[in-house]
Amino acid sequence: MKAKLLTLCAALAFASSALAADESGPKAGEKVPELKAFGVVGAVEGKEVDFAKERKDAPTVYIFVNAEENGIPVGGRPAARFMKVLDEKLGDASDTAAIVAVWLGEKAFDKHKEYLPRFQMSLKLERTALAAFDGNKSGPNNWAVNPDTRLTVVVANKGKVVKSFAFTSVNETDVKAVLEELKKAGKE
After folding, report:
1. DSSP for 46-83?
2. Where are the beta strands (DSSP E) in the chain?
3. pLDDT at residue 8, rounded to an integer
4. Most buried residue, 36, 47, 83, 165, by CB count within 10 Å?
5. Is there a contact between 159 and 80 (Cβ–Cβ < 8 Å)?
6. What 3-state DSSP class applies to 120?
7. What is the per-residue pLDDT across 69-87, written as a single tens digit (0 to 9) for each?
8. Residues in the chain with pLDDT < 50?
9. Which CATH number does the domain housing residue 141 bear?
10. What CA–CA distance (Å, rounded) separates 64 from 87?
11. CB atoms within 10 A of CB 51
12. Contacting residues for 158 by C-beta, under 8 A, at least 6 apart
């Protein structure tokens, strides 16, 4: 009986943590919040900038990366493959779209700034800006990033959130859903 009770408690705990990770990022229809982060690779390098202000109304995919202290994304290679494939196929959804990927992690800001140029050298991303956020794992104010997710992906167009995705596991097959939302937003 005790074993069954323990199994039930473990299953409920797992289910509640899985449900909690189902949501991350601002809700569809909300205005894209301010996103101050330190630009490491891309259009802005070597300074803090509000990426939301920089992108304004342009179609943008914001990725919040839950990273280990050494900068490596939680989820490792599958998360990196997701970002590489998204970068490669972004032009299929929109000629003007870009990606802003922000590394999160408490007390790891300097490590992320060191790691991101190596990440870029390895993946050779063309439409992705890489940035580091100097704060906690839940990211910048008003972005509602769930620290239990590996990646939070927010599709935005015309200054509004189109859709937020919470990935507790991710790979390149997840790119299709993100691109479909970006294409739909471009038609509206």
Report:
1. SEEEEHHHHHTTS-EEEEEEEB-TTSPBTTHHHHHHHH
2. 36-41, 47-50, 60-66, 98-104, 128-132, 151-157, 160-167
3. 38
4. 83
5. no
6. helix
7. 656 776 688 889 999 999 9
8. 2-20
9. 3.40.30.10
10. 15
11. 24
12. 57, 185
Range of the domain at 146: 24-187
Per DSSP, the chain holds a count of helices (H) and strands (E) of 5, 7
Residue 19 counted as domain residue = no
Q: Which of 125, 126, 154 is nearest to 65 (CA)?
A: 154
The pLDDT of residue 14 = 42
pLDDT value at position 13?
42
Query: If DSSP codes are grouped into helix, strand and coil, which group holds residue 152?
Result: strand
* Structure tokens given for 170: 């991710």
Q: Which pLDDT does position 104 carry in this prediction?
A: 92
pLDDT reported for residue 155: 98
Instruction: Give residue 50's Cα distance to chain centre.
Output: 16
pTM (two decimals): 0.86
For the chain, the domain total comes to 1
pLDDT value for 188: 66
Is residue 2 a part of any domain in this protein? no
Residue with tokens 């970002």: 83
